[in-house]
Fold this protein.
Amino acid sequence: MEIKEPGETDLHKLLRQMTLEEKVGQLNLLHGAVDADHTAIRTGAVTGYLLGPPRWEKDQAFSWAAQTNALQRIAVEESRLGIPLIFSRDVIHGHRTVFPIPLGQAASFNPELVRECAEIAAREASAQGVHWNYSPMVDIGRDPRWGRVAEGYGEDPYLCSRMAEALVRGYQGADLSSPERIAACVKHFAAYGAPLGGRDYDSVEVSERTLREVYLPPFQAAVRAGAASVMAALHDLNGVPMSINHALLHGVLRTEWGFTGLVVSDWGAVADLLKHRVAGDEAQAAVLALQAGIEMDMVSGLYNKHLVELVRDGTVSLELIDSAVLGVLTLKKKLGLFEHPYVDPEREKTQLLTPANREHARRMAQQSCVLLQNKNSLLPLARDIRSVAVVGPFAESKAELLGTWTLDGQAEDVTSIIEGIRETVSQQTRVIGGGMHPESAVAMAQEADAVIAVLGEHPTRSGEAATFSNIGLPPGQLEMLSQIAQFEIPVVCVVLAGRALAIEPLRRFADAVLYCFHPGIEGGRALADIIFGTVSPSAKLPVTLPRAPGQIPIYYSQRSTGRPPERTARYTTKAIDIPSTPLYPFGWGLSYAQFSYSNLRISPELATDGQSIIVLATITNTSPSPGTETVQLYIRDEVRSTAPPQWELKRFLRIELAAGASSEVAFELASADLGFWQHGSSWRTEPGLFTLRVGPDSQGGITGQFKLLEQN
Ligand code: NOJ
């Protein structure tokens, strides 16, 4: 029997048995498992596979569970050391049960529901052999030209951080080795959401302060919540490609935050270093990435091609390889793969798309759809309305409701909006539908008592590599609406989107506007639930809606400038051809109920550093219908040594209130919530006056103040 050295774990022992080639193989993630040459598995030259959508998937008999088990069997039974493979996939907003896109989930301001959805995604994906998920994407998105804003949780670091934690907990649970859990991979580290001109993959120039205050907090929140892995982004940050950004990958992630999980490159990013022109050849690219902290190479193959030689010639140390290999083996161990390498094939047959999962998708979609305006309380419509026309390019859509990044969602699982409406209205109601083309839509609208126009953007206009310079409504939609408007029939516009679109012109033609991020498989029913009042809308905008593309970037927490915008004063911070306010602010969203805010109490009003601040407010439902309000708490540091943001979201809470009911909400703020980044060093707070606002969005509400006292 082999004697273990003191402090040696099973993994160290395994490491000692591995050849250099096998070690390097553990750092090599490939794509296209089904096509794979199984020699790579048998010889230990591959650590696992990124499961892409193979053509076999369309074959009804295809089983991911059987497929991954078959490959796993080769690794476990036929490779020299039997190290299990890891299978990864992008399960971005649900697996077979597709939930609203992440931006829509953020609109719920409901981290608990988001966590439950992630848990369902984990259960479904793991049933098909997935161990490792490239989610959550926690990149702050403040430029809606960038198509990947759809995959993130909006413009605000606090909201995004709460969502990041919820997703990590939802995927991983308390015990990652449970067969129904998958490892999270928080991405794309870091500041990937701020590319020049919104062009995907372009360079990012952000100051240290903005990086610390805006872009990094959601990553830190995910790490604190226990994220098992981090993906480095594809871009260069202030000139340093993230795949070789030692300062962030080591200095911040490992040293400051104490992250002990795995760091993986993004797709082909190690090879991209040649195109970034920071590496002169492939071998140099591999060395630079490994030395900077990229432990696993996603599909470029350069680690596998060069690292053995580079260790042999002394360029790369064996310690560096061993440490990266231990990172990979540790993740496999945490996932329980050494003990349970196979997935139970029965789960795939019973755990996907269950009625309970669909019910979650419906609730999530109900809570992700924002009511922007509701003139004359047009909504909700009566279920026994005589006739309603459901028109527009997405009235009958199925696949389009799924949104971007849905590898496993299927059009046949989706309830279209017109189907959802048909299921909901009374038997006597005539649903005039299918007006996909403008002429027929206009003709149909004429015959109806109300029109529901389903507009917006196709999901392929959002997501990866889907930068759009013109973020207005696609051509033809406004023209169709203007023709419908001439009949003076009430018009409800449902806008489907993967981003903040510039929809100002639409408001002229619409009585009610529901802004709905691509809502997933139950989107049709959820929208019908809202339109006909089964539920009251409760979502709030996780992004600012601009009036026009030229206003970008526009977000609520912009810093205070020396010349705050003033409409009538020329030399102030604004464009002269457009108001400086957004079309709708961050946090905005109406309900069928109305809420009033009163009785704000802050205690203590004179606080010492380290003391908690308790904020109480009373929210009253002043309407005859029940509703849910998301109460938002913002702060503003009145004077400090660096220009502060105008307002910063610090807490939020969803509360349900019956007609006429009141409730007191309580928030607790810690000193850390009052801090800002002091250039080159750390977080600090400065004594002085703070204003607090509790309200329904980032502009309204009631205010009060407290003072942070000087330290003795
Ligand atoms: C590239 C994308 O940037 C990343 O988000 C994704 O996880 C990988 N491809 C793997 O599909």
User: Anything to note?
Assistant: Residues 50, 90, 134, 187, 234, 266-267, 464 surround 1-deoxynojirimycin (CB under 6 Å). The mean pLDDT is 95.
